[in-house]
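In the previous chapter we treated chains in isolation. Here, by contrast, the input contains two separate entities that must be folded as one system, with a combined length of 742 residues.
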Amino acid sequence: MQITSPAFKENARHALTDAQLQAALDNVRSGFIDKRQWAVDALPEFDRLRDSARAIKDHVLGHLDLYLEAYEEKVKKAGGYVHWAETAADARNIILDICRSAGARTVTKGKSMITEEIGLNEFLQKEGVRPVETDLGEYIIQLRGEHPSHIIAPAVHLTKEQVEADFRRVHNHLPYARDLSEPESLLGEARRVLRSQYFQADVGITGANFLVAETGSSIIVTNEGNGDLTQILPRVHVVVASIEKIVPTLEDVSQILRVLARSATGQDMSVYTTISTGPRRPGDPDGPEEYHVVLVDNGRSSMLGTEFQDMLRCIRCGACMNHCPVYHAVGGHAYGWVYPGPMGAVLTPSLVGVDKAGHLPNASTFCGRCESVCPMKIPLPKMMRHWREREFSRGLNPATQRYGLRAWAMFAKRPKLYRLATSFAIPLLSLFKGRKGSFHHLPLAGGWTKHREMPAPEGRTFMQQWRDRETMKQEARA
Amino acid sequence: MKQGDPLKEDVKKKPRVGLFVTCLVDLFRPTVGFASVKLLENAGCEVDVPMAQTCCGQPAYNSGDRSDTIAIARNTIETFEEYDYIVAPSGSCAGMLKKHYPGLFKGDEKWEARAAAFSAKCHELVSFLVDVMGVQNVEAAHAGSVTYHDSCSGLRELGIRDQPRRLLSTVSGLDLKEMKDPDVCCGFGGTFCVKYPDISNRIVEEKTANIRASGAETLLAGDLGCLMNMAGKLERQGADVKVRHVAEVLAGMDDGPAIGRGRN
């Protein structure tokens, strides 16, 4: 996928003036937040569950190699294949090979962010294999040739009127007079259109919310049931998962599941939690004949042992972006790569390099709301700050910023000089305000005064006035 | 004085507070500094304002400039560690002193313990009054309605939500009208608002819409950065909402011009 993160500012500017996008983002600003809050309020032990979920993942990350090997063993025992992919290209080629040996012309896909990350759809298409997204949101954006703007609600940047127009454009074999005014009717139509695709597909590709070392199972949580059809009906099931999806036991999964859906959509549980272990066994009523797991690293192992390791606890619930004022303002596409919002602001520089994604960890007010709702208690602002530190030490941020900061720090580090300079500058600045209490324009403060007035200083600094007051007191005493 | 002199005992028990004025209050809104002194003295503290203070270092810290941050933090610690408490009229700066300074000196043999001891004594003004000094009410009057914005750092780093509301409820004549989403960021974010002015603007527009919809005559908050951002936007919009630091109202020092307003 083309990365446009370096153009974050321009992306944001477009997003802010896109009326349709802004209307669609209203759904994020309200819906997700209230629903999560109700779900959390109804579960008194929610915060303790977060601690427990965090502990499980921290433990796994400390022993990732052991659990991955144990998992591989179990998958093999169940009759499946495990493929290790160090890079996105490795993963793509492995998947293509599987498709080729299955003679696949069509593959159905469950919703998966990792296949976005490795750019699977474009690749398969180019190689003559047709990928069909079966999650409603993914299906919609595939029709439009777009990428997800949200990790759990890929089409959240669209209004239902836009979707209706797309369906009328693409499903032109259906009578025009049909009613598509409600989300349910859109979902119904997508279901009917997709139904035949499941039977045509030779390979079904899903992601995984969890890989279970104890059993060799992969688990997906979905709300539409499309994931089940994707992995059960085709002859071959391919699970694509990044290495940090591993958890030790099914008991651990059930712990984390209790915080996942509540944080994501405010549901107690997603509608479907589907566990698959290996291919169909003799006597099984259904299931694939072949079962493959592609384990993708793509830069994650180099996060281990660094200040960014905590990011690998992420379970992709989307709560951080649902609560982020910056995401609310610009939507997901402005971030310019696969993962938007606060989690993307930390993960994207790790995976594509901070030289390309440097804007993302900077475009945060550090309001801390993301961390406060993160079910895995990932210190997102702290890690964004770590990225800023790396940028600063590598001299990647703009020169004007660096010089401005250096000049300011020169004073801030020297109290006497600072006192002297502010005692002179502030009363002077205050003189210029005239009868008004704020400035409409101010040299060097264009970023501020572009959209707001700049409140003027009251007059002399507090320190000047305080010193006078103390001197007067002493004189009175003498 | 003689042993057991009640006056002397009283003086002895008074906690010594070093007021960390914050750079924005020092430069833009000295009234907040004087209001803080008054509130602290009324609560029974002896207040001192050391001249060697500058800024908490957040502009450097949040720009990734760790070495300047550490230099500034050392100066702040040296300047303030003699006091029983260090109090700042800002959740953001108090959060920096309390929650972020210790991390700067992790593994530094000489400074780690010193920073930890310092940070344990740091507090935001209003939460200090309520939680540490046990202040139940204030002697102040404010005829009119106010709405209160929860600044992010104070709320999420220091747990300040009820304390200002509790004290405001004891200001005679004051009517608190809550706005929608008082806990959502105003879009200030320190250097964020000048690095990403358009996004910041979108966020503060949402905020001022909620402020104006509350119908309150005055907007209060505990952080001057947020207040200047919101006041600047309200002023640009021509909104008739006055903006003040919560300490000004609690100290009964709200008769001067509001933030960003001239003398009539």
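DSSP finds 14 helices and eight strands in chain B. The first strand of chain B starts at residue 16 and ends at 19. Compare these points with the single-chain example from earlier in the chapter.
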